[in-house]
Design goal:
The complex is a heterodimer. Chain A folds into 4 domains: 13-97, 2-Layer Sandwich (Uridine Diphospho-n-acetylenolpyruvylglucosamine Reductase, domain 2); 104-221, Uridine Diphospho-n-acetylenolpyruvylglucosamine Reductase, domain 3 (2-Layer Sandwich), CATH 3.30.465.10; 225-415, Vanillyl-alcohol Oxidase, Chain A, domain 3 (3-Layer(aba) Sandwich), CATH 3.40.462.10; 431-478, no CATH class. By secondary structure, chain A is an alpha+beta fold. In chain A, the strands form 6 sheets. In chain A, strands 15-12-14-13-18-20-16 form a 7-stranded antiparallel sheet, sandwiched between helices. Chain A is globular and about 65 Å long. Chain A has 16 helices and 22 strands. Residues 1-5 and 473-479 of chain A have low confidence and may be disordered. Chain B has helices at 3-13, 28-40, 90-97, 116-122, 129-132, 167-171, 204-216, 229-232, 247-261, 270-283, 300-310, 333-345, 357-363, 373-384; strands at 18-19, 22-23, 45-48, 62-65, 72-76, 81-85, 102-103, 139-145, 151-155, 180-187, 189-190, 194-202, 223-227, 237-245, 266-269, 289-294, 314-319, 324-329, 350-354. The two termini of chain B are 26 Å apart. Chain B has an 8-stranded antiparallel sheet with strand order 15-12-14-13-17-18-16-19, sandwiched between helices. In chain B, helix 11 (300-310) runs antiparallel to helix 12. Classes of the chains: A alpha+beta, B alpha+beta. At the A-B interface, strand 9, helix 7, helix 8, helix 10 and helix 16 of A face strand 9, helix 6, strand 11, helix 9 and strand 16 of B.
């Protein structure tokens, strides 16, 4: 765990930033800075040198030009809901908070596009588009709080990305302020780029290429019919087998989510209880959408597959209230898990779907050996695991066990041919795993591509790559 | 291939490297060695795959081909994933996947003889883009050989992955400017239970309106393509819709399509449907130049009018759900430049997919770039190919 208690920035920077954004939009007092010392990852904390909240893209550009002139590092931040410590700034850096840029600039229903500022909250966009029968599909669990700009930086996913793709599949154009304060217009309204796919390259760059100040996204029609099936299983491996059987059938559900018994117990003991049986080893939520005939036909295949693979019961809902009830446990799972202990480390990794049963067994063995409570709630359809570790970070023994468990789970996922992150990003949490995930040539090339956008490596320093791989900015000089 | 290069390569790697005047390495490792050697010699090269699409007239010291990189290295039915070498053709991959009841939903212009490396490098998606997304969406990861001989493997083998920067996106549609796509990890789909094509002919405006109503109705289609007479190989305009999925789902969506559009649709399935789609696939290279446009659906009709007046006769293909318009015909550099200017004013990019070298050299695959993109592109080129070993015209010299 890291904490940087004092600012290392020049004293007159406060006034200079205040002249750009207004003095009320620069935070410098310790109590104010403490608000920004962490994101959704409980194991990492760091006090920024200053926090600045620009109110327009022009102010963003002016702030970045000023920081470039003074060679000051900066860290872009949205709502701070990220789970990889990606939006933490040290005392030598300015935290650039983008929540004031929160306008939906336009919705074009005929072309199914919306143009938004980075601080727009994810769920607000779908709410605004609903009157046109449209929705913004990527739906991370934090969608009522997280921002579209943060989603772009992390290439965020969500339950419904199994069928419709993650953020990168839904962004067609970006207006970007580069770290030197200049502007680059990437992509086009339709999506075909003028040049190589720099939108695709920028997506998921974790704030290290610049700041997206205007984002054009694709909207999708709200499906004609949606059917949700909830199946409960007495064996975890049986639930995993059911996932494989559904995918192998050729059906791509809109969502295919799993919760294990530990997670079910937490939900059912909370105000989010759904009445699910807590003696189940796991439940699967399968959502099918599309035309009525297609949904009915797919349900007629999926339900027998669930039963054939050991489902004890299958509950089916089509009407919205019933569907919402089936989803409630899944949607509120992280909140329920948060009640179990002072801290919750939500991990994120991906394995080939066929490796899910073995990985879940491995997680259970890690849990038992280290004496931790690990609950699993995850996107089973795309093999995206979220082991959630309940702990108290004030207890060094528990904190160390969390680190050990996380490392062992990551190593197992890599050994299975998977990835160290499916949707949360590398941030400061997983950068030490990067050399295990990529060969040196790939890491070198990533570091160099970063310098194409940011030659000084001042944008979000200390993230994604271990220091020994990608030389970083420290104390005004590049190491 | 210039004599000096042929002699030098034969001496260094043996004459077996050469195949009809083309350097065709037998493995990714050999490809990397050849790249490093050629760069060390200061030679410039053009990249080719199956040799059926573009680039044979690109001036270079040598042609470097992936045609012998034919490995289908793994197929994982349970994970819907395959790893293949860049020289495997679309048809070869399809044949390898069929016994597993899998497919790669990519139907590029030029057809099945094209290599998967070429299709990814040029991002040449066909009508199936409507239902399955652009080519890049099928690419999970790749190994790229860069001119100094390094093999750079990025992305991964799983369907969801945000570890590190998404460099495969740079290579998909990069026209080889950032290296040779030597190996790919691909996302597959299970073969649908039913796969049919519906066809209707009529007045262009009538078909445009019908396609718009189908799109607005949210009917589940995997392709919705408007084809000009030259594209369809017929005397009139055609609207083609492809539906895939469960039998009941396909029947249901087909019924909705008929009701919504009011068109008299004919139904094709099996070989008849496959044969039908081969015609536009071939027509996409009926002229010496093929380009694609990205326009919003509300601008499709005015874009077609502009194409008719500026580009003239040609085969035209319109993805009615995606807004991707493809044109193939004869056009000179100045006509192309004028068209590009007109389209840019409408925020519609024009990407040259294939063209004689003088056209590509003058206009570039991408032409003029938007604000701030040129410097980024220049630095990326300098990073991946600092000596300019790969001959590719991204921006063009504009005459």
């Amino acid at each position: 765990m890291t904490t940087s208690p004092t600012t290392a920035l020049a004293p007159d920077l406060l006034g200079a930033l205040g002249r750009i954004v207004g003095p009320g939009w620069v935070r410098h007092r310790p109590a104010e800075l403490a608000t920004y010392a962490a994101d959704g990852l409980p194991t990492h904390r760091s006090l920024p040198g200053l926090v600045v909240l620009p109110g327009s893209r022009e102010e963003v550009a002016a702030v970045l030009r000023l920081l470039a002139e003074r060679r000051v590092p900066f860290v872009p931040r949205g709502a701070g809901t990220g789970l990889s410590g990606g939006a933490l700034a040290g005392s030598d850096a300015v935290l650039l908070t983008l929540t004031r840029l929160n306008r939906i600039l336009r919705i074009d229903p005929a072309n199914r596009r919306a143009v938004v500022e980075p601080g727009v909250i994810n769920a607000h966009l779908s709410q605004a588009a609903a009157r046109f029968g449209l929705q913004y599909v990527p739906d991370p669990s934090s969608q009522t709080a997280c921002t579209i700009g943060g989603n772009v930086a992390e290439n965020a996913g969500g339950p419904h990305c199994l069928k419709y793709g993650v953020t990168t599949n839904h962004v067609t154009a970006l207006d970007v302020i580069l770290p030197d304060g200049s502007t680059a217009m990437l992509g086009s309204p339709q999506g075909e780029p003028w040049g190589p796919d720099l939108v695709g390259l920028f997506l998921g760059s974790e704030g290290m290429f610049g700041v997206a100040v205007e984002i054009t996204v694709r909207l999708e029609p709200i499906p004609h019919e949606v059917r949700t099936l909830l199946a409960d299983f007495t064996e975890l491996r049986a639930a995993s087998s059911a996932v494989s059987a559904i995918i192998a059938s050729g059906i791509v559900p809109a969502a295919l989510e799993m919760m294990d018994q530990s997670c079910l117990e937490a939900v059912e003991a909370s105000i989010y209880a759904t009445g699910a049986r807590t003696d189940a080893a796991a439940i699967l939520l399968v959502e099918l959408d599309g035309g009525p005939e297609a949904v009915a036909a797919e349900a007629a295949i999926v339900e027998p597959l669930l039963r054939a693979n050991g489902a004890r019961s299958v509950t089916v809902a089509t009407a919205e209230p019933e569907r919402a009830r089936l989803w409630q446990g899944r949607k509120k799972a992280f909140g329920a898990l948060g009640r179990l202990a002072p801290d919750l480390a939500v991990q994120d990794a991906v394995v080939p779907r066929s490796a899910l049963p073995d990985l879940l067994d491995h997680i259970a063995s890690v849990r038992d050996r280290l004496g931790l409570r690990i609950s699993n709630v995850f996107h089973a359809g795309d093999g995206n695991l979220h082991p959630c570790i309940s702990f108290d970070r004030r207890d060094p023994r528990q904190a160390a066990a969390v680190e050990t468990a996380s490392r062992e789970i990551m190593e197992a996922c890599l050994a299975a041919g998977g990835s160290i992150t499916g949707e949360h990003g590398v941030g400061s949490d997983k950068r030490e795993y990067m050399p295990r995930a990529f060969q040196p040539a790939a890491l070198d090339m990533m570091c160099e591509v970063r310098r194409v956008f940011d030659p000084d490596a001042r944008a979000n320093p200390g993230k994604v790559f271990p220091d020994h791989v990608c030389r970083e900015w420290r104390g005004g000089e590049r190491l | 291939m210039k004599a000096e290069a042929a002699t030098g390569l034969a001496t260094a790697f043996g004459s077996a490297l050469l195949d009809g005047g083309v350097a065709a390495p037998h493995s990714v490792e050999e490809l990397a060695s050849v790249c490093a050697f050629a760069t060390g010699q200061g030679w410039r090269w053009r990249i080719s795959g199956g040799g059926t699409w573009d680039g044979a007239d690109t001036p270079a010291d040598l042609e470097l081909s992936t045609r012998r990189l034919k490995g289908v290295l793994s197929i994982a039915p349970a994970d819907l994933m395959a790893t293949v070498d860049g020289g495997v053709t679309i048809a070869e991959l399809g044949a390898a996947l069929l016994p597993h009841r899998l497919w790669l939903p990519v139907d590029p212009p030029g057809g099945g003889a094209r290599s998967i490396g070429s299709v990814v490098a040029t991002a040449t998606a066909g009508p199936l883009r409507h239902g399955y997304g652009p080519v890049r969406d099928q690419l999970l990861g790749c190994t790229v050989v860069i001119p100094d001989g390094r093999m750079v493997e990025t992305g991964g083998r799983v369907v969801k992955n945000v570890a590190g920067f998404d460099l495969p996106k740079l290579h998909s549609g990069g026209f080889g400017a950032f290296g040779i796509i030597a190996r790919l990890h691909l996302r597959l789909r299970a073969l649908p239970e039913r796969d049919i094509t519906l066809l209707a002919d009529g007045d262009r405006r009538q078909l445009l309106a019908a396609a718009q109503s189908a799109r607005d109705s949210g009917i589940g289609l995997c392709a919705l393509e408007l084809l000009s007479p030259a594209a369809a190989g017929t005397g009139g305009w055609w609207l083609a819709a492809r539906l895939a999925g469960t039998s009941a789902g396909v029947e249901g969506e087909g019924s909705r399509l008929r009701t919504t559009t009011g068109l008299a649709w004919a139904t094709l399935s099996g070989d008849h449907a496959r044969n039908f789609w081969q015609t536009p696939g071939a027509a996409a290279q009926s002229g010496s130049t093929t380009f694609r446009l990205g326009c919003l659906t509300s601008g499709i009709e005015s874009t077609l009018q502009l194409l008719g007046t500026t580009a003239g006769a040609g085969a035209t293909f319109v993805g009615m759900g995606t807004g991707q318009v493809r044109w193939s015909g004869e056009i000179n550099p100045s006509q192309l430049a004028g068209l590009r200017r007109e389209l840019a004013a409408r925020e519609v990019p024009l990407t040259i997919e294939r063209a004689p070298w003088p056209v590509r050299r003058a206009e570039g695959h991408f032409g003029g770039l938007r604000t701030g993109v040129g410097p980024i592109l220049g630095r990326l080129r300098a990073l991946f190919d600092p000596h300019g070993s790969i001959v590719v015209a991204l921006e063009g010299d504009h005459g």
